[in-house]
Q: What sequence folds into this?
């Protein structure tokens, strides 16, 4: 454990404390002049809470949910199919690779691609007009739900392969005699899914949920590149990390530090949930 | 066992976050390669007080390749042997160029001789920030005299002087703007493509509105999008953006908001955003946009390329017959204005002061070179003698269908007043446009758009006070 703790101490713990320390100072650059650092106590936190923090937290959650719901549904279905020996799907390893592919592309280039595809005069609009579905171009990136939908779609495409593989591993870890026994007893596939698969993979399922939630909280590159760093329209696709980036961009280390600490607290709370679910600490205490 | 799994996971998560956190800082320096690393002593440098040792690498910070092409066409052959010139390019949007430049300038004292910034370019929107700082040096110190700059337009000199009158920057171009319209559309809608006749139809904003309506009836658009008329209003404001450290919205800016909302609702524009692909396409052969407000650099550097059917990258040439090249003409439009302009500054701590001065003298002061820039590149150069001579000559712009627009540019240049600028203009202009796009699109009401503007600038400029 020594290598772990020494790397943790140097690369995580010191920056963490340092961030908290920085968050107590007024420290930014005005043009070529450095302002501060001046100690201001908790003033930065007050400013952050007075700004639109909750709006950006809401944006981030909405963007995560519209990507995560289709992602978990499709991933569960695919995982059950791929893991089902009786279905004997052909070429399943081929498709496992294919669905993982979007994750290999850099998020920024993926977002650039979508930006070009869905621009006002882009191929997607041309296609829809030529098919007679639309009369005039639909301006995806000028509408709130068009932009959010595209971000959700991209996150879904990038992460459903990864989630499928995790869930499949969980299902394959279940003793196959359980499934056999159930089908001999005449259980339908839906019953097997709800009564056997879901309860047995629950810890992994929750792990997937929480890690995805933490990943969702840190959503940055896709909306940043798709909206050209603007979080438009009406700042409804500005995520927490984009908000953080705006402050860092103007070298405002005090405000950025305060926001980072708030993000740390939220993420730490969620990580504790994962820890207790994974180790089953709560259950053991209550159960026995 | 479980502990091992957990700590393994933690390690992996930490490694992943480390990789994810890597910034792209190193990209900035990739372009600067050292030609001859050892610094050699040169008498000339000592005389001029630009430092006792001199590297042979000249680093120039720019945001696009406009100056680079000027340099290559009009100076590169004069560069003394053994010198290398590096262009370090950072796109200007969202203050990215300013940030990269600031980082380099603040690090100037510690940088190696070959990595020092020698020269950098600035735009009118933020020139004051650098002129009033210690990062630029008085051009007299590297040997640029008042005599050298005597033919330049006064506003280009005044804008680049600090509080005590030291000349901190120099420009080769003037940026009076005109309205550049499509001849074929003018004929189809107004019945004539003669600049004097077209001018009558857009002489003031009321007649501009009426012509816009006619354009709409025939299926054309008066302007391309939201930001096209912005500079005609923002350059004619009554006071700078910032008073002390308080942001003030000028009544003229309000007029832009009102007009653009009106035009958008009536369908007089194509709802494009400045520099977007759709915006550029409007200048192409398939374009349905009547005209664009553009200074000379916009005609040469932007429109001429966009107008081609077969792009230059595909082997096409800028000539009449390729796309709508030559189907354009210039007229004054409803209001005179200035847009942009590039000034060259010598960085404090440069180790190649004499080369920097020589580039400046050649491109910004030399009559013969500047005349060639106008004739070959259709730019408007910062040299009264040359411009007035050419305005009266038989100079013809092929892009403008053989028109000589120079007298109009000269007249507009005489009216330019650049006293209403602030060091924050780039960020404020960009954020206002971004915030207002939502209002024009109908996504939000005007108050919300205004609030978003204030939020954005308080993030960008923490020292500014809002309301």
A:
């Amino acid at each position: 454990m020594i290598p772990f703790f020494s790397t943790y101490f140097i690369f995580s713990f010191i920056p963490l404390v340092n961030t908290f320390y920085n968050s107590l100072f007024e420290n930014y650059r005005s043009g070529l002049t450095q302002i501060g650092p001046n100690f201001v106590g908790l003033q930065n936190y007050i400013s952050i809470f007075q700004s639109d923090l909750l709006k950006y937290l809401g944006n981030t959650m909405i963007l995560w949910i519209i990507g995560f719901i289709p992602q978990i549904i499709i991933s569960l279905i695919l995982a059950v199919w791929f893991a089902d020996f009786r279905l004997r799907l052909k070429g399943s390893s081929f498709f496992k690779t294919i669905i993982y592919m979007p994750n290999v592309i850099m998020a920024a280039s993926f977002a650039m691609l979508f930006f070009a595809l869905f621009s006002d005069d882009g191929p997607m609009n041309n296609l829809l007009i030529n098919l007679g579905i639309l009369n005039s171009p639909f301006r995806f990136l000028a509408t709130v739900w068009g932009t959010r939908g595209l971000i959700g779609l991209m996150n879904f495409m990038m992460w459903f392969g990864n989630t499928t593989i995790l869930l499949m591993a969980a299902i394959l870890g279940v003793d196959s005699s359980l499934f056999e026994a159930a089908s001999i007893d005449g259980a339908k596939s839906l019953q097997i899914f709800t009564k056997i698969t879901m309860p047995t993979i629950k810890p992994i399922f929750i792990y997937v949920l929480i890690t995805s939630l933490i990943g969702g909280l840190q959503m940055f590159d896709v909306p940043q590149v798709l909206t050209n760093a603007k979080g438009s329209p009406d700042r409804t696709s500005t995520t927490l990390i984009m908000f953080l980036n705006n402050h860092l961009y103007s070298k405002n280390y005090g405000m950025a530090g305060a926001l980072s600490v708030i993000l740390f607290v939220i993420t730490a709370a969620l990580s504790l949930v994962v820890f207790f679910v994974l180790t089953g600490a709560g259950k053991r205490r209550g159960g026995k | 066992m479980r502990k091992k799994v957990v700590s393994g996971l933690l390690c992996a998560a930490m490694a992943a976050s480390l990789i994810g956190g890597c910034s792209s800082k190193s990209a900035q320096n990739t372009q600067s390669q050292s030609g001859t690393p050892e610094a050699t002593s040169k008498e000339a440098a000592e005389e001029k007080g630009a430092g006792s040792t001199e590297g042979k690498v000249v680093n120039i910070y720019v945001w696009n390749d406009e100056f680079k092409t000027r340099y290559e066409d009009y100076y590169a052959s004069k560069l003394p042997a053994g010198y290398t010139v590096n262009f370090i390019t950072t796109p200007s949007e969202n203050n990215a160029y300013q940030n990269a430049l600031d980082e380099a300038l603040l690090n100037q004292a510690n940088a190696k001789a070959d990595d020092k910034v020698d020269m950098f370019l600035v735009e009118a929107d933020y020139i004051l920030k650098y002129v009033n700082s210690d990062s630029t040096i008085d051009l007299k110190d590297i040997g640029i005299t008042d005599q050298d700059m005597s033919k330049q337009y006064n506003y280009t000199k005044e804008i680049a002087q600090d509080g005590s009158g030291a000349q901190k920057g120099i420009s080769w171009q003037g940026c009076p703007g005109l309205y550049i319209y499509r001849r074929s559309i003018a004929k189809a809608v107004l019945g004539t493509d003669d600049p004097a006749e077209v001018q009558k139809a857009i002489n003031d904003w009321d007649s501009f509105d009426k012509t816009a309506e006619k354009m709409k009836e025939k299926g054309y658009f008066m302007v391309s999008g939201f930001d096209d008329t912005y500079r005609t209003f923002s350059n004619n404001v009554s006071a700078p953006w910032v008073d002390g450290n308080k942001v003030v919205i000028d009544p003229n800016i309000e007029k832009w908001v009102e007009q653009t909302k009106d035009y958008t609702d009536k369908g007089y524009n194509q709802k494009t955003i400045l520099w977007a692909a759709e915006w550029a396409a409007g200048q192409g052969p398939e374009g349905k946009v009547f005209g664009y407000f553009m200074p000379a650099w916009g005609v040469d550097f932007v429109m001429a390329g966009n107008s081609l059917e077969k792009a230059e990258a595909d082997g096409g040439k800028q000539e009449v017959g390729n796309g709508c090249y030559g189907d354009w003409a210039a007229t004054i439009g409803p209001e005179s204005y200035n847009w942009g302009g590039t000034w060259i500054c010598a960085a404090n701590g440069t180790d190649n002061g004499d080369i920097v001065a020589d580039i400046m003298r050649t491109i910004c002061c030399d009559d013969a070179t500047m005349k060639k820039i106008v004739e070959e590149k259709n730019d408007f150069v910062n040299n009264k003698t040359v411009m007035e001579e050419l305005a009266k000559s038989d100079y013809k712009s092929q892009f403008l269908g053989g028109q000589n627009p120079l007298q109009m540019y000269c007249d507009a240049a005489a009216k330019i007043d650049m006293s209403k600028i602030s060091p924050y203009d780039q960020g404020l202009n960009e954020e206002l446009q971004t915030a207002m796009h939502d209002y024009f699109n109908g996504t939000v009401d005007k108050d919300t758009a205004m609030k978003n503007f204030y939020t954005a600038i308080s993030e960008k400029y923490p020292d500014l006070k809002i309301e």
User: Anything to note?
Assistant: The longest strand of chain B covers residues 176-182.
